[in-house]
Design goal:
This protein is an alpha+beta fold and about 230 residues long. It has helices at about 55-60, 65, 75, 110-120, 160-170, 180-195, 200-215, 220-225, and strands spanning about 5-15, 20-30, 35-50, 80-90, 90-95, 95-105, 125-135, 145, 155-160. The longest helix has 16 residues, at about 200-215. It is elongated.
């Protein structure tokens, strides 16, 4: 029966991918000498580990929506599920390498994407947990099937810059916001009715108006001065 171990090697942004993608080189070793592995259907679950690294003041502000105030992070900062992958590993004896293709996204409904976007620099610790099915040959050449134990894991460090390179290759200086259709229709009507040519101008106009509404009036400021 195969005794498999896993290790992540080189991690980099993938050039010329159809979608933003990071590749992680996965090294697989079978400790049982001269045993032929016919194939593996490998399940990979990736989790981000936000604890164990430092955060700047700017990052703290951008992560407020995800973890709350810094004093609460000891309770709120938990591992974040990133993705599940299924990888088919071809035949090998001894050891082999395959690429894990990690698609990246700017869907801010996903907690992991909020976390990526909130970071400026440094690295993120990623845990990979493995399971799946191994097809192998016994000493008589007969086909056998075995399950990968649930305790098989690997860990690697993903540089924030690598994630940004993957995203910027497709969406340079851009971000995406998914809206309910009803909300979009209202924004579109606002844009058309006022003859605003571009979406950034629509949002900037609305933000400027909101800031003016939030700003205290001169009468309020004067009244405060009198009270003081």
């Amino acid at each position: 029966m195969p005794d498999l171990s896993f290790r992540i090697g080189e991690v980099q942004a993938m050039a010329d991918a159809a979608v933003p993608t990071i590749t992680a080189r996965l090294h697989i070793t079978n400790a049982v000498a001269n045993e032929a592995v016919q194939s593996i259907v490998l399940n990979c679950q990736l989790q981000l580990q936000p604890l164990g690294r430092s955060y700047s003041t700017a990052e703290e502000g951008r992560l407020l929506d995800l973890f709350g105030e810094r004093e609460r992070w000891g309770r709120t900062m938990k591992p974040l599920h990133w993705m599940n992958l299924v990888v088919k590993v071809p035949p090998f004896t001894g050891d082999t390498e395959v690429d894990l293709l990690l698609p990246c996204s700017l869907d801010f409904d996903v907690a992991a994407n909020k976390y990526f976007y909130g970071l400026e620099r440094g690295f993120i610790v990623v845990d990979v947990m493995f399971s799946g099915t191994v097809f192998h040959s016994d000493e008589h050449g007969a086909m056998r099937i075995a399950q990968i134990p649930w305790d098989r894991e690997a860990r690697f460090q993903l540089q924030v810059e690598t994630w940004r390179q993957a995203i910027d290759a497709h969406y340079p200086e851009s971000a995406w916001l998914r809206l309910p259709r009803e909300t979009f229709d209202k924004l579109y009507e606002y844009k058309v009715r006022r003859g605003i040519p571009a979406w950034p101008q629509v949002l900037n106009q609305l933000l400027d108006a909101a800031e003016q509404d939030d700003a205290p009036s001169e009468e309020v400021i004067s009244a405060k001065g009198v009270v003081q």
